[in-house]
Amino acid sequence: MKTYDNGKAGFTVTFSEQDSEEFSASWPCSTVSGKGSFSFAENGDLVKVTGSAETGDGDDWAAFSHDCRIWGEEIKNGH
After folding, report:
1. Which domain holds residue 67?
2. Fewer CB within 10 Å: N-end or C-end of the chain?
3. Total tally of structural domains belonging to the chain
């Protein structure tokens, strides 16, 4: 995953096919696959999805976006 600082607009986390496969291996019956991105507002709200995330639906995708948000916040805040 990679994080891009969007300034006051928040941040974007991109994910690769390998990132989604690694997540799916840890989540039973996961349909998470492919590559794309999640964009988050400064307050952490999900504001945009691209790539395979656009058609993703379900608890597995929600959990994956949450993991991406946490990871992106840590990178953006220098942790």
Report:
1. 2-76
2. C
3. 1
| 5-61 pLDDT, tens digit each | 998 889 999 999 999 999 999 988 888 999 999 999 999 999 999 988 777 778 889
Rg (CA), the chain: 12
Q: What is the pTM of this model?
A: 0.87
Whether the Cβ atoms of residue 40 and residue 50 lie closer than 8 Å to each other: no
In this structure, are residues 36 and 14 in contact, taking their beta carbons and an 8 Å threshold?
yes
Please report, in angstroms and rounded to a whole number, the separation of the first and last CA atoms in the chain. 15
- Rounded to whole angstroms, how far apart are CA atoms 68 and 62? 10
